[in-house]
Design goal:
There is one protein chain. By secondary structure, the protein is an alpha/beta fold. The protein has helices spanning 23-32, 97-110, 130-143, 158-167, 212-220, 235-247, and strands at 4-8, 17-20, 40-45, 51-60, 65-74, 87-92, 114-115, 118-119, 151-152, 156-157, 171-175, 199-204, 224-226. The chain has two domains: 4-77, Ribosomal Protein L25, Chain P; 87-247, SPOUT methyltransferase, trefoil knot domain (Alpha/beta knot). The chain is built from six helices and 13 strands. The strands form three sheets. A six-stranded parallel sheet has the order 9-7-6-12-11-13, sandwiched between helices. The two termini are 28 Å apart.
Amino acid sequence: MKKHRFFIKEKIGNNDKITITDQTMIHQMKDVLRLRSGDHVILLDENDFGKELHGTINTLSKKEAVILKESFDFAQDKENSQFPKNKITLCSSMIKKDKYEWVLQKGTEIGITEFMPVISQRTEKVNLNIERAEKIIREAAEQSERSDLPKLSSPEDLEDVLQFLQSRETQIIVLNMGAEKLDVSQFGRSSAPELNSFQIAVFIGPEGGWSEKDIDTFKIHDVKFVSLGKNVLRAETASIAITALLLLP
């Protein structure tokens, strides 16, 4: 039987017993997944990615869940670790709520390391419910058996995001119609081991595409423009398509 995985705020440390009081998580365990005493689960520490506690549910009530440790495991030591080898920061312009939440969910499943929502000139929606977004990311990470949680930033202006990324020397590409088609062999698709991992930020425009002002901003920062071919893709489709090409084998 599959062991369900849960990212918890409580520190796992070397504890033999973990008590969970998060009501949303208790509801998920008790009422959604129908877990009971004696069922096996895996707990992952939000503050110490990679450390996994394999345990058994001792008690599960409306107020708390008590998990007894069976063993510890460390994802970093596994041959097939669920830590993404390639690090991608997705800088997609804010779009309608349901569509952006879909990007968060699917992007987490694929292996995106960080989400940095962007406010560009044609962005219509500028607010993001961070608490709800983090919940979507957490559940997607648990479902896809990731050993880490992607980072999530609040929406920021395009110029500010570009300056921040360049201050940490991140390689940047911008998806834009009419540009040279993306060549994934340039990013970690070589037989040479030292070239088989990369860190890159990918910018995706809003509905209607980048404005001339946005394009000028990118040119000032001397970033690389790429395309996915001649088909016009929706913003949410493009976000997942390009990251899947870069991340999946």
